[in-house]
Design goal:
The protein is of the alpha/beta class and 143 residues long. It is 20% helix and 34% strand.
Length: 143
């Protein structure tokens, strides 16, 4: 058995206006729908829409083929926000699979990882900007 603990620091948030400042490290990226909080009037992450991965996270965000679907989720006054969890190539797909399996983002509905986790037991401990994400979770192999 090859149990794994993955602990990425979630960096962000960036909007389209400042995505050029985001890290270009390899890793996963999370796409959020952000809107003004009705009580405070402050823009906040409201919903995790999508999880992707790339050898260059910023490039992945900027060039992901799903961008039109992300934009279609926005209402007037809302924006897309992005966060990045740096992760090396060896564990990137496993981390993405765990994130999708645990969080079930609505725009990952075509992912095989929504209902299937093909890796050994994996515990994920997120720190940093983890809004709308479980901070610590474990997923078991489920083929």
């Amino acid at each position: 058995m090859n149990d794994q603990i993955l602990s990425p620091k979630m960096l962000g948030f960036w909007s389209d206006a400042d995505i050029a400042q985001a890290t270009d490290e390899p890793g996963i990226y999370c796409i959020y729908r952000a809107a003004n909080d009705p009580e405070t009037g402050v823009m906040e992450a409201q919903e995790l829409l999508y999880v992707g991965e790339s050898g260059s996270a910023r490039h992945g965000i900027q060039h992901d083929e799903h961008r039109p679907r992300w934009e279609a989720c926005l209402q007037p006054g809302e924006a897309l926000w992005y966060s990045i969890g740096p992760c090396g190539k060896a564990n990137r797909e496993r981390l993405k699979a765990a994130m999708i399996y645990a969080h079930k983002p609505r725009l990952n509905q075509d992912s095989p990882y929504l209902e299937r986790f093909p890796f050994d037991r994996t515990t994920v401990h997120l720190y940093g900007r983890k809004d709308k994400l479980q901070a610590i979770f474990t997923v078991e192999r489920h083929d």
